[in-house]
Amino acid sequence: MERRVKALNGRPVKEQADYVLYWAQMNRRADSNHALAYAIQLANERRLPVLVYEGLTCTYPYANDRMHSFVLEGVPEMRRRLQARGIGYHFHLRRTRHDPDDRLYKLAARAAAIVTDDYPTFIARRHNGSVPTKVDIPYFAVDSSCIVPMGQMEKREYAAYTIRPKIHRLLPHFLTPVEKTAVRRPFQLTLDEEPTAVTDVAASVAACEIDHSVKPSLSYEGGRLAAERTLNEFIANRLRRYAREKNEPSAHATSDLSPYLHFGQISSLEVALAAMVAADEHKLIAGEFLEELIVRRELAFNFAAFSADVESFDNIPDWARKTMAAHDGDRRDFVYSREQFEHAQTHDPLWNAAQKEMLLRGKIHGYYRMYWGKKIIEWSATHQDALRTMIYLHDRYALDGRDPATYTNILWCFGMHDRPWQERAVFGMLRYMSYDGMKRKTNVEAYLKEIEFLERTGKDPFRPKQV
DNA sequence: ATCGGCTCGCGCAA
DNA sequence: TGCGCGAAGCCGAT
Q: Tell me, what's the pLDDT at A466?
């Protein structure tokens, strides 16, 4: 457990305290959560109860109905599962920027220690830099996102092939379920602060001062139950096709778990274990799926953990920066504005369909997303413009945005974790992808039809919401 | 349909 | 120091 846990301030545990506080910033789940397990351990050692705090504010960049409803849909089941284990749960929705932003500190005033998630991007990264100095109790950040903890890697890895053997060497040790330790003291305290009840998600979202123009995903409902259903359906119906059809978007052979992984409503550890059990029982091949779920996902966390700024070209290798500099002034055949990209108004029907999938579903199939990114490079005035556009569109519309995997996928388009290829205009030696290649290798027509149906009917036959 | 060249640099073997 | 090979390819030759 040691390498998972970082003590971020050297404060001593407070002796006179009412509970140990787990602040669920990124791993919004009661199950398979190393950080919660650590909070329980600390509490049990001191015969204290555990209180889980989960917050949602309206002030993070591009806060909108899509992100908010996905998080809020998880709240009732989170409460149910924690209460069933005798763990306190306090959810707080900060509706407007005029509401006080001090709930964590209020709850921390009665806590012996704070445990939270070690997470290398977005708000959690900033919080874990600033909050530890503002509290007078210990502040522990626990890596419950990765199977092999980020702290096990001593440096930034160059590519998948350099981290793969290291991960595989450590997997036997880390690929084990999180122990579900019972709490010794059930949480029975009354708090002065009022938690936010979530009974009607749409009403709660409507009451927030956020961007209401980005509607909830047509396809992905948030929450633990939806996450478990998605995992079970993947294992029952799609895992057997994954290796062969993962790059055929119209075949729907991928897991669709990235939104749930990003918001921590399910852990990659329990997904990996479930895939391995299924592979064992039904003689399925899980290797290719586990490669993506573990090696490539954790390469992304390794990159983010060692990067000063995950949104910068500073991260890409020298050859890529040099070749871009040499080609930044090349003439572009098409140049689109951010708004034209955003509203899917290019000349390319496949690109537009991928962007519409982003607008409607809230994520793009992994294979077409590479094409989507490469074309933004091809049709932007500068490489820097292309990078900004990709980050903006993910931040605003993608349920799997703001994640280490997001930035890695984007920077991969600019050569990170990749190698040079034959030089050509605009791209230089960055890998190029073409419409003809997509046409040759995938069923573009079926995908266009699928997205057209989504757009016309507002319904996703491949992922009916269970409302 | 299949194949080699394109091009850089990491990490390991020697 | 040499060598193999890499996160999703393209293109032209055969």
A: 65
Check: CB of residue A221 under 8 Å from CB of residue A467: yes
Pair type for strands A111-117 and A139-142: parallel
- What value does the mean pLDDT of chain A take? 95
Strand B contact at CB of residue A157, distance < 7 A: yes
**CA–C1' A435–C10 (A):** 11
CA–CA–CA angle A281, A287, A291 (5° rounding): 140
Q: How does pLDDT run across A83-92, given as a tens digit for each residue?
A: 999 999 999 9
* A9 contact to strand B (CB, 7 A limit): no
Cβ of A424 less than 7 A from strand B: no
What is the distance in angstroms between the CA of the first residue and the CA of the last residue of chain A?
A: 39
CA atoms within 13 A on the CB side of A87: 29
pLDDT in tens, A433-450: 999 999 999 999 999 999
Residue A425 has pLDDT above 70, yes or no: yes
A419 touches strand B (CB under 7 A): yes
